[in-house]
Amino acid sequence: DAxxxxxxxxxxxxxxxxxxxAIKDLEHAQGFPTTKGCPLYGTYNNNNDDDSTPSxxxxxxxxxxxxxxxxxxxxxxxxxxxxxxxxxLGCGCHSYNPIFGTTVNPVxxxxxxxxxxxxxxxxxxxxxxxxxxxxxxxxxxxxPAGWNSLYSLRPTVEWMExxxxxxxxxxVHVDDDELDANGEDKEVEMPWPMSTIGPMARFPExxxxxxxxxxxxEKMELFDATSVIDQxxxxxxxxxxxxxxxxxxxxxxxxxxxxxxxxQCSDALDVFKKGHxxxxxxxxxxxxxxxxxxxxxxxxxxxxxxxxxxQIGGVRxxxxxxxxxxxxxxxxxxxxxRGFELSKEQIHAHLQTVQAWSKCAQHEFRSNYDFLxxxxxxxxxxxxxxxxxxxxxxxxxxxxxxxxxxxxxxTLLGLPCVTIPAGNDRRNSxxxxxxxxxxxxxxxxxxxxxxxxxxxxxxxxxxxC
Length: 465
Hints:
alpha+beta; 14 helices
């Protein structure tokens, strides 16, 4: 039984010994630079004669220490050999930047691998690694998993909080109210983190193992990987039997979807019916998508601006000038312009929407469903030469991230969410991948991983029909 080897590995504190890993380039790894794909953190070498790659003209200092979770990976025996590519400052779900260029999809190298953990997704899909780290603010673990036929887990956000966080856009956290130069509060405390680190892998068992290692030591009692990896196929079948999943699809028609996405995801969910899981289509959206989107884009801009202000220093009004002088991409400027203008009162009003959505979701989980599901993206992987899709099935996207609106419901609540591969688009020869994000109440991470394990083993023929 495959679970025996997993359990044997787990019993050893250094289960990663000898296994190579690469760290997302938003996080610190000793001996490697943390570029975040951004000129802001490096110096340009005008005298460099080697123009073969974009990175050849930039210099970034190597880090002298690990991020806390990277240290835990090393302690477990991992050999850190590289960093994985990310969009500039982790901003966006397409991993291109002026330092290292564009990460493409191994399934079709003319397409994007997604982001912001796109480098990790492409490396895993290329069989370079067995499991890698990522982070997720607006789908950065979920989108690349779906687009590279992988599994990922966005854990319960409070589980992954460190005493001291590593700075970065895609791993933003909010401290207690902080005063600016004028003595005014510049940050609003969030009810929970809006972003988190998490694992991505080719098999759900590896997600469980990596999650166990990434969790801060003082919180290790919150998750036991053996609750996932020690389950036999028969036990998993009993665990998932009778589960109810609410399929939110396109949120009652409010999220535009590329043709084929919904059918591919629905077909993937139908696999669970083989395990006597009840899949129920949610025809009426549980909450206003307009309110969710309005709250999310304002909170996101507020967090990004204040994170960059903290990193750059100085007075708030100087942040935008510094970013523009250093040539930071337009999408980051857009976020910071919005974040600079937002007042505390506006953010507090949006947090009321978050609390209302939280109460609504809690009711759904208590009364109607064990889990809810959405597509991992509103499109299949698009052409890698594009910055972002400007429209979906004729519907214009009014911002650079509107095509990822489907990620907002989970992010706003900090809920655990597992992404499973939904197969490739069968309508034509492209065969482009998509995935399904399945989420539930806080703390149900092990149950989500058990569900994903059952799905993986069924697809691999390890379960009876």
